[in-house]
Structures are given as C-alpha cells and as structure tokens.
C-alpha cells in the first residue's frame, strides 16, 4: 500500500509576535501496508530587528527513524549531517557565535518521542525552512485498522527530584493566540482494496480512482484546527497477510547490502481448556496523578483521563477468568494498593474492587512510577499463576528510559500491557514498557474504540507463552543473514511480528527460498512460513534500511544502559552516523557556509511554544488556581473571569461556557490542592510571573532577571517545592 499526502499547517505554535513558525508541507507515503515515510517542512520567519535563535521542542512517534534534516535559506540548501551529539553542539555553538546561520536537530536523552530543533543566527527579515524526514511502522489496531498519528500535543513530563526536565523550558501555546489550521490530503495506493479511512478529525468523502478500489483520495475537512494529535485509521481487505519485502542497498556504503523486512502473523490455536484461560496474577497499575483529571481530548471536556482509565479497568475486572488472582495499585507522588497481597478473583473480591475503582480520582499529585513498580517486582510471583501487569497512564514522566529498563529487567517474570490514556500520551513510555515487558501497547483517546482494545489486550494476556522462538532460513548457502532487529521474545495470536535482516552475498540481490518462524506453545510445535521469490525493490529511498538501522541502534542503546557491553555506545554512534539515522548519542548539524558575511547584531533566543492539550482561552489551569487563591472567593473569581473574557470581545455564549469550564476545573483543582493561607503570597508571585511569560513575552529582556529572582524566592519557601513541582506538572499547560 502506498499513501502520498500533502499537509499544510499555518501559524503553528509560537508565542512571540515578531517570530513565526509555519509548517508548510508534510508528505506521507505508506509502503507494504506497514511503513509510513513522512517529510515535514517547517518555515521560520524572523520579523524582529535583531538576529534570532529559535528553539522548538516537539513530539515525535517513538518508533520513528529520523533520517533526514534539510535546511533552506533563500537559494541556499543545506543538507545536515549526523555527528556525535557533543561535537554537533560544539559545531553549532561555534557557528552561531561567529555569526553563521546554523541548524541543530537532536533527540532527547531521556525520551525518544521528544526532539529539539534549533535555528540559529536567523537575520532580521529572513525566512528559513527546515525539512525533517522520518520513517515508522504503523500499528495494527484491534479492529485490523492501520493507525498513523501525526502528533501535535506535547504535554509536560513530570520529573522526579534530581532529574532534568524534558519540557520545563517550553512555554505552552494558548488556544486562540494563533490560528491553528491544518489542511491534509492523502492519495492512497494499495495492493488490496481500500475499504475506508477514518479519523478523529472530520474528513471529506473517500474518492476512488480505480474500479478495484486500490487507489483513493481523502482530505481533512476545511478549517480544521491543528490543536490535537491527528489520528488516521486505514481499513483494507486481507489485513493479516504475511509478506516479505527486499530493498536493494546503495553500493559503497554501510547500507549497501540488501535488507529484508519480514512480516508474520502467527496463528496460535489454544484449547479452551488451557490452564492459561483460568489462571494468572493480574496486577493493575493506575496513574492517579493530577494530570489524569484533565480532559481525555479537546473534543470532549466532560470526559477526563481518570474516568477513561476507570472505565477501562472496570471492563477488565468484569472480564477476568474465575480462579485467577489480582490486585490494583494507584500511584502518583505516592502509591497504595487495594489489597496487601494479590487476592483470588471471586464474586466478593470483584465487587469490592469494583466499588473502590468507581471512587478513584486523580488526587495523588505527581507521577512517580518507579516506586510502585519496584514494590510490585519485589514480591514473589504466585506459582502456576503467570504475572500480567496492566498499566494505565497519560505517560507524562521525564525518566522514561529508567522506567522502561526496569520493566525490561523483570521481563522474565511477567508480561506488561500498557494503555496510553488521552491525547499527548508518551509513545516512548507506552510502547517502550510494552515492548520491554513482552506485552502489547494500546492508546485510548476516545471511548468509541476502548472496548475492542481492552479485550484484545486481555486476550493476549490469557495466551500461553510461546517458547523456543526461532527464525530458520532456507536460502542459497552463499547468502549470509545478519539480524538488525532484536530477537523475537513474545508471540500472540494474529499479532503482527516484523523483523529486519541484512543479506550479504552474490545472490542476495536476486534470491529465492523461504523463511520460517518456529515456536512451541504448550508443548505443541508451530511453524509459519514465508516464501521468497522476488527481486529487491529498486526504490532508492532506503526506508527499510533506515528502520533496520533504527532497530539496531535502539537495541545498542539499551545495552549501553545495562552496562554489560562496553563497546555498545561506540557501535551505536558509528551506525547512526553511517546510516544517517538519529540516536540519543548523535544529532543532525547543518551550517550555512555559503554566506561569507557574519550576521550582525545581538542574538535573541526565542523558545517556540509547544502545543499542550489543556489550555483554555487566555488562561492556563495553573493561572486559574493562582487567581482563585488570590481571590479567596469563588463568586469574585467568576466575576473577574467573566469581565476579562467580555472585555476580550468573546461572544456571550462562548463566554458563559468557558467561565463555567474555568470554575469547574478550578473547583476540581482545589479538591486536590486545597488553598493554604500561608502560601497566598507565593501563588500571587507565581501568577505574576506567568502573566509576564504569557502576555509580555516580547519584553522578556526587561523582566527576565526579576522573574528569575521571584521564582528563586518562591522555591525557597518551606514546604512549597514538592507541591509546586507536582502542581506545575499537572497544570502549567
């Protein structure tokens, strides 16, 4: 299947009136029904009177392999190169300090779904565009759809004490500050008939251009606001078809050999009398941090993340098999469990748990996920009851890799199934924990698709464990096979398995034979075979090579953190540089060396405001709380909000609606954080600093030191640090 699409984004994510960022075009292409290739071009314009360095921190699919970074200034095109990260930063700093125009793109050290883009020494009146190219696998949903997500929301990540925040320096864009509009058109080409395309955003009718319905076109409806993650679901016939795709390499490079992408759909038939169908220890870990009280998505303010988690958990609890054991943990700044130890699943224990679940609220403060995990793993597993861990979270943590590594360390004793709740949930955490824990990830952004996803994960958890998983090749002897993906360690019935291999040898470019996936389930051997009788694809995009390289790089990064392989980091950096695929140890760097005249004038540093989900009108929820504490009266608070919105020229109906929304959320916040008189001056100071950031950003040079001094005083107040840190994570959107 192929999809070509062009997307136009206007006036995206900026909170400074003299600097604009415009996402101008995105081109999406689907390969073989599994792989999406995306090229996004972003345009910056400096409308200030001085040179500017623009910083943009944005979300990215955690499974994406970023392989291209191209910049254009006027008629000059700059192809960025991958360098070791510290060397790339030094080159960037040297360039902008000498007045050269430079571009830097780097992946976060802590989370693979957060990237930082720096555009340095952009002269007054100058326009620059950058193109970021990446490739990623599309997830198969419970209803057999292929899911593509264009992330727009970067929610703040809670950072435990002593750690560096991923998102603290990024201001949140306020709804209404700029017009967020998105125009998206997709041209679809598929080897099998296309049934439909659905989205969380309004679409135009699907247009077919062939009688067999293998070519089609669809667009987002005009006027769409780019204020949410754009999710596209593609349905086509014959979704569970094993396949092999060979891609020829480019001579003279590390990626010069043929790469094979193998896609299996194991068919595991289990007897209904299987012990796994009535056994297991099910541990449910529910995020009860304050951010879980925020809306599930922007289209429905009435449904919160915690309510979605409750509904998901209630459905799972009612569906567990009799005879199993279970327990439920809630976590935030602290954690607690329903029962001291896992209890047997009976009518009585189920009803007790159901009643407790119904009363669960988002009232546990910050998001400390490591302590409850450590507590769970410290307890011995129950004999004959394999442990299954189910996590429900909005994924807003800053220590993602530490959490994933912990889950991976205990993968031999349990399986981990994750549910990312709400828009902007961290794909790095949700995918990483599931992959590291030999489970399966799900993303729930609306209740309409919750039930099949929940039942699919439960069905997977009830599947017996596949053992002795092996890949066997029947190909010419002169062809050697090197795996690029880590070994397969888990199989579920009809769950797609994709593996990448590097093929070397004289006949690798024109090969026939077969590959078989072998495994044993409950002492019964299984085999799934794919025939190879094809030539490599002549496409020179090297998409499969990029994905294979990314898989190998991520595997090496994990070995670095484990500490056992001393050469893993060096090999990861080498592979990243030679393949042109990003890693946490490398960065893309491009410098305009065509301009021989240094850019003159003092360099201004501007932070692009990331799109965060929970901003309303002209206020953040933290501002509302601070304002309420200063008012000390809900009626006075309501009058002030109403007056402010009326002066702003909002229609009366909208004003009444948003005032009600503000008051409801503020009351909910106050239930979690009751106002304390001794902190009233603290919150007044915080409100003043927020106002400066939100409404006087253009005068930052005048007030930045005063604001810094004020916040130093705030943090010095006894008892405020933990409260402020937790509350900032939850509400500074």
UniProtKB/TrEMBL annotation:
Descriptive protein name: von Willebrand factor A domain-containing protein 5A-like
Enumerate the spans annotated as VIT domain: 6-136
- InterPro entries noted in UniProt: VIT, VWF_A, vWFA_dom_sf
* Organismal lineage: Eukaryota, Metazoa, Chordata, Craniata, Vertebrata
Which intervals hold domain VWFA?
A: 281-462
Q: Which Gene3D superfamilies match?
A: von Willebrand factor, type A domain
């Amino acid at each position: 299947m192929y999809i070509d699409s062009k997307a136009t984004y206007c006036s995206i994510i900026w909170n400074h009136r003299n600097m604009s960022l415009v996402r101008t075009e995105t081109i999406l292409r689907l390969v073989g029904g599994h792989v999406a290739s995306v090229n996004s071009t972003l345009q910056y314009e400096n409308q200030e009177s001085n040179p500017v360095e623009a910083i943009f921190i944005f979300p990215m699919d955690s499974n994406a392999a970023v392989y291209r970074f191209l910049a254009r200034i006027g008629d000059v095109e700059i192809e960025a190169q991958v360098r070791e990260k510290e060397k790339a930063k030094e080159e960037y700093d040297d360039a902008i300090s000498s007045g050269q125009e430079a571009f830097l793109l780097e992946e976060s050290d802590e989370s693979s779904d957060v990237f930082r883009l720096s555009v340095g020494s952009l002269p007054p009146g100058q326009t620059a565009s950058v193109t970021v190219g990446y490739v990623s696998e599309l997830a198969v949903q419970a209803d057999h759809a292929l899911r593509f997500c264009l992330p727009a929301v970067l929610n703040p990540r809670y950072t435990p004490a002593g750690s560096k925040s991923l998102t603290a320096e990024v201001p949140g864009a306020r709804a209404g500050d700029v017009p967020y509009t998105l125009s998206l058109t997709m041209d679809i080409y598929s080897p099998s008939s296309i049934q439909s395309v659905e989205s969380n955003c309004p679409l135009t009718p699907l247009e077919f251009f062939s009688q067999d319905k293998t070519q089609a076109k669809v667009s987002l409806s005009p006027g769409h606001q780019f204020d949410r993650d754009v999710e596209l679901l593609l349905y086509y016939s014959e979704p569970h078809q094993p396949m092999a795709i060979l891609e020829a390499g480019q001579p003279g490079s590390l990626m010069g050999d043929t790469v094979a992408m193998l896609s299996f759909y194991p068919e595991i038939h289990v007897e209904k009398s299987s012990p796994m169908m009535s056994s297991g220890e099910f541990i449910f870990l529910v995020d009860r941090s304050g951010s879980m009280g925020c809306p599930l998505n922007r289209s429905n303010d009435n449904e919160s993340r915690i309510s979605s988690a409750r509904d998901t958990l209630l459905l799972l609890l009612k569906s567990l098999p009799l005879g199993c054991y279970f327990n439920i943990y809630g976590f935030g700044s602290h954690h607690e469990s329903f029962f001291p130890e896992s209890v047997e699943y009976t009518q009585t224990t189920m009803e007790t748990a159901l009643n407790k679940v119904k009363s669960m609220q988002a009232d546990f403060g910050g998001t400390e996920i490591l302590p409850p995990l450590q507590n769970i793993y410290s307890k011995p597993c129950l004999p004959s009851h394999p442990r299954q861990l189910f996590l429900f979270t909005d994924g807003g943590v800053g220590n993602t890799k530490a959490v994933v590594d912990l889950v991976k360390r205990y993968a031999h004793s349990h399986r981990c199934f994750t549910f990312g709740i709400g828009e902007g949930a961290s794909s790095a955490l949700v995918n990483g924990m599931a992959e590291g824990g030999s489970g399966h990830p799900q993303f729930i952004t609306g209740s309409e698709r919750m039930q099949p996803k929940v039942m699919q994960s439960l069905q997977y958890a009830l599947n017996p464990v596949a053992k002795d998983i092996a890949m066997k090749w029947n190909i010419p002897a002169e062809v050697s096979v090197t795996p690029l993906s880590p070994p397969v360690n888990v199989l579920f019935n009809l769950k797609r398995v994709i593996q990448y291999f590097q093929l070397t040898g004289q006949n690798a470019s024109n090969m026939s034979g077969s590959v078989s996936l072998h495994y044993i389930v409950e002492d019964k051997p299984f085999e799934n075979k794919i025939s190879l009788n094809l030539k490599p694809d002549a496409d020179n995009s090297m998409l499969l090579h990029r994905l294979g390289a990314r898989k190998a790089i991520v595997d090496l990064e994990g070995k670095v953190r484990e500490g056992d392989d001393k050469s893993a980091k060096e090999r990861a950096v080498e592979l990243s540089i030679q393949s042109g695929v990003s890693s946490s140890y490398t960065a893309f760097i491009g410098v305009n060396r065509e301009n021989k005249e240094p850019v003159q004038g003092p360099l201004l540093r501007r932070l692009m405001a990331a799109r965060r989900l929970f901003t309303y009108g002209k206020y953040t929820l933290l501002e509302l709380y601070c304002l309420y504490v200063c008012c000390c009266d809900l009626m006075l608070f309501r009058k002030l909000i109403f007056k402010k919105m009326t002066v702003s020229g909002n229609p009366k109906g909208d004003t009444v609606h948003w005032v009600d929304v503000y008051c409801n959320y503020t009351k909910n916040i106050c239930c979690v954080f009751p106002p304390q008189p001794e902190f009233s001056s603290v919150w007044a100071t915080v409100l003043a600093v927020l106002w400066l950031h939100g409404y006087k950003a253009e005068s930052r040079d005048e007030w930045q030191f005063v604001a810094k001094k004020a916040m130093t005083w705030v943090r010095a107040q006894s008892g405020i640090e933990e409260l402020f840190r937790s509350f900032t994570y939850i509400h500074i959107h």
